[in-house]
Amino acid sequence: MTDQIEEPAGGEAPAMIKADLLTSLVFIVLSASMLYGSWTMDRLANRRINPMTVPGLVPGLLSLALLICAIALMVRSVRTPSVGGWLDLGAAVTSQAARRAGMVLFLALVYTLGLVGLVPFWLATGIFVLAFILVFEVWLAAPRRTLRQSLPWAIGLAVATAAIVTFVFERAFLVRLP
Amino acid sequence: MLDGLGMLLGGITHFLTPLSLFNIAWATLLGIVIGALPGLTATMGVALLVTLTYKMAPDQAILCLMCIYSGAIYGGSRTAILLAIPGTPASAATTLDGHPLALQGRAGLAMGLATTSSALGTVIGIFALALIAPLLAEAALKFGSYEFFWLALFGVVISGQLTAMDDPLKGYIAGILGLMVAMVGMETLHAHQRFTFGIPALGGGVDLIPAMVGAFGFAEILGVIKRTAQARIVSSSEDRVVPKLSEILKYWKTTMRSGVIGTFVGIVPGVGEDVGAWASYAAAKRVSKEAHLFGKGSQEGLIAAETGNSAVVPGAMIPTLTLALPGSAAAAVLIAAMFIHGIRPGPLLMTESPDVLYQIVAILLFSTLAILVFGLTLTKPLLTVLSVPRERLMAVVYVLCVVGSFAITQRMFDIYVMVAFGIVGFILREMKYPMAPLVLGIILGDLLDLNLRRGLMLTNGDPTPFFTRPISAVICLIIVLTILMSIPAISMRVRALFDTRRAGIDR
Amino acid sequence: MNRRRLFVLATGASALLAGTSLAGAQEWKPDRPINLIVPWGAGGSTDQVTRVTAPILAEALGVDVVVVNQPGASGAIGTQEVLNAPHDGYTWTANAIANNATYSVSGLLEDTDIDDWHIYLSVANVPVVSVPANSEFTDFGQLLEALKARGQEITVATAGITSSGGTAIAALSDAADGFEYNMITYDGGGPAAIATASGEAMMTTQLAVEQTELIRGGRLKALAVLSDQPLVLEGVDPIPPITEWIPDMDLAPDYFGIFIPSDAPAEVLATVDKIWAEKVLNSPELKTYAETFGAVFAPSYGAEARALAMPVVILEACSSVERGEAVNDPSTIGIDCATRTETGL
């Protein structure tokens, strides 16, 4: 398990510190652009509203707060020694575990953005459940199962989920599924 | 007083018919199921049933709706404990300690404690409803924009405190991110579109439900599948569903406190079960002797969260019945339903038909009993969920996340929100950012923003009332003290001061 | 040849039927639940009246009419959803007509006007001017003087500029030589009324239906109703009409109702027309609702409803221009604000 960023006693893992450095930069960009957005937001002067109640007030304050926190995070991660942090971080994002997460994401996106809406909901759901179980039991599993072991379960669960979810939500809860 | 007791007995016997008991049973069970499914909320359950109970007799219809309501608030704890996915926003705080308990092989105990705590919370709220409803409702009216602003700010400070154990900085960042998310969409004060980038669907803002289902649900799925060699959760042999009496009584102070907090949150219009749970949880953590266990499977934390959210239900009925002001979102739908059935809540209810109040009290008592029965008997079968291989379970859970985020408003946009929050939530969780402040931030963002600016609008820009109104001043003081106490140097000195004093008395 | 004659006969008959009334059109038998989208939150004024109306329709149609709340952007988001859904008669919306018909003027929706909808109206709601029970003002005359003298100091609680209350205070100001006021926006008509009752705001102009319980409970003092008739509420003194103080004020009752896309199948509209005529027009539930909540029971449908609704649509569209909020000129939906009439497109 290369990616499990374990905390060694007395400090953060080097990879985590580098990751913090990266996110702090992201947050600085985010808060700075939101601050700019709040500052340039319409002050509705033509409606003669009180200047203390402009829509950009609270977003501006929040982005300031995030900016301060992000700078604090950046300073902290720059100061903390982290030998080999970049390499560990690189290993973490290319590890087998990360690939599994990426696969979930891929399947989920194909299901929600592609299948749902294109084919009837029950069919999309059945295909997704079937693919999900097969991928993670037969292909990306640590002790792999054979197709023959997994397939009956996968088919059974796919049919059951598609049928029950469609029935319960459309008939009992009167939700019009996509 | 005696009159009241007589009417309460009347209310109880009124519902001791086979039909009523049957309705209580199915409605509570349906409520639990709705609550347990991620995305389906108590409000949605009640709104749905309004349509279906239209042809029933008024008392039976209200009976079903109330049972759905309290069942759903309780039901959310099931998935929160078993899967770390809160079934409704009300049980988001339950995940913090409920799921760690399940990971320790004590899911049965966690669900049992959640059940008894929910029941006790409801009972505390029922007492308030039956005894001092009109007085309490009056107090709630004293909460105006200024007070709501401080309450929201208090929530933000709490969210930092909730996570102070691990890394407060990341807790605050997550909280601010949540607040920022709440800024998206049309702000209602001047009807101005903020950060919508010309996307019409963003005009309504980011809905809490899909965001929560994504941040807790989808992110959890990604996390669980990512870890290959994770030990399967096995119910340990010591685990049992029915908690010992000593376990319940051990934290009686927490139960009482959370019940009172929850009831009060229920009474105040504009905040609901979710806030009740968070406030109770934070209060428990603040005063607990075992604060270091919170978030790592503390029974006290679980009890606080579950007592707190359930006490909101009877609490919310107080202004609903006495002032016709909904104390929570689900109560707003209940008012509409009551009207359809010819019951008119409001200031005249107590004089015109006082028996209605006591019938509602009786209904709540019955639904509490039903929750206890279902909760303690159906938990064992629920535990088998834990033994399902997670590859299979997670596929089904993702389908539920998709349907759940879609069900409320029936827009595809909400599914996209769920996916987006799942991805961002997953990345943040991998870097040890807590999700709780993020969700709390989304809940509180509007409250904070609108009430601050509304208060300033009321005074033409003068902030003095924020400090001079009595309730405002008190909450403000509490916030200042909370922040001061969180600075280690100060809290140490204060503690030292108290210790010397106590030592002086002992001598 | 036989077939041909039959065809001619059939078209002739249907033309004849269409000419007289739609009642003869084939009856519509829905085979699944109907979604009735309320583009406002659960428990609000639109939601309440819709939840009273929905069961009547459900019973007559024999399927469930499911009320779905899709709040956001002053109702524009939910309305857009209905317009996007297939116009097959299974997706309806419910709203105040003044909002529904002016979304393109306020810029919240593109290219939509009143003729996109087949209109079914159920009740008309009137705004009521109220002050807290312990207010310094005891009648509307005093309040009006104060507004003219020191308007900026008077806080008015409403649910927003586009809400009924916001429109009402703007119309009052127009009618009384443009006094100033400090409008405070709340998250709905109910919260606005509560804030006034608790003394946070000095007055409110929200709908009667949102204030009735507070007026009855003695927490709000109703000073005037924006109508030319007094408003009679069970249990309290009749509320005097605004015309006692401002006789020449432009008044237009705000109608609430259910709207079906006008290009839905003809049999859908015909069937709902029939239900509206037979069931809703004399519905005791709606009547009681109107009486208890200070609304006016005024059901109508089709062309008649459109004619009744037009004054408030014109008023809403033109006052949004005067307030400087209009994104598109009302002429784009066929309204001429100089004459305050409908010119058509």
Automatic annotation (TrEMBL), chain A:
<keyword id="KW-0812">Transmembrane</keyword>
<keyword id="KW-0472">Membrane</keyword>
<feature type="domain" description="DUF1468">
    <location>
        <begin position="23"/>
        <end position="178"/>
    </location>
</feature>
<feature type="transmembrane region" description="Helical">
    <location>
        <begin position="121"/>
        <end position="141"/>
    </location>
</feature>
<feature type="transmembrane region" description="Helical">
    <location>
        <begin position="97"/>
        <end position="115"/>
    </location>
</feature>
<feature type="transmembrane region" description="Helical">
    <location>
        <begin position="57"/>
        <end position="76"/>
    </location>
</feature>
<feature type="transmembrane region" description="Helical">
    <location>
        <begin position="21"/>
        <end position="37"/>
    </location>
</feature>
<keyword id="KW-1133">Transmembrane helix</keyword>
<dbReference type="InterPro" id="IPR009936">
    <property type="entry name" value="DUF1468"/>
</dbReference>
<protein>
    <recommendedName>
        <fullName>DUF1468 domain-containing protein</fullName>
    </recommendedName>
</protein>
<feature type="transmembrane region" description="Helical">
    <location>
        <begin position="153"/>
        <end position="174"/>
    </location>
</feature>
<dbReference type="Pfam" id="PF07331">
    <property type="entry name" value="TctB"/>
</dbReference>
TrEMBL record, chain B:
<feature type="transmembrane region" description="Helical">
    <location>
        <begin position="472"/>
        <end position="492"/>
    </location>
</feature>
<dbReference type="InterPro" id="IPR002823">
    <property type="entry name" value="DUF112_TM"/>
</dbReference>
<protein>
    <submittedName>
        <fullName>Transporter</fullName>
    </submittedName>
</protein>
<dbReference type="Pfam" id="PF01970">
    <property type="entry name" value="TctA"/>
</dbReference>
<feature type="transmembrane region" description="Helical">
    <location>
        <begin position="148"/>
        <end position="165"/>
    </location>
</feature>
<feature type="transmembrane region" description="Helical">
    <location>
        <begin position="356"/>
        <end position="379"/>
    </location>
</feature>
<feature type="transmembrane region" description="Helical">
    <location>
        <begin position="24"/>
        <end position="50"/>
    </location>
</feature>
<feature type="transmembrane region" description="Helical">
    <location>
        <begin position="107"/>
        <end position="136"/>
    </location>
</feature>
<feature type="domain" description="DUF112">
    <location>
        <begin position="22"/>
        <end position="440"/>
    </location>
</feature>
<keyword id="KW-1133">Transmembrane helix</keyword>
<feature type="transmembrane region" description="Helical">
    <location>
        <begin position="323"/>
        <end position="344"/>
    </location>
</feature>
<feature type="transmembrane region" description="Helical">
    <location>
        <begin position="391"/>
        <end position="407"/>
    </location>
</feature>
<keyword id="KW-0812">Transmembrane</keyword>
<feature type="transmembrane region" description="Helical">
    <location>
        <begin position="62"/>
        <end position="87"/>
    </location>
</feature>
<keyword id="KW-0472">Membrane</keyword>
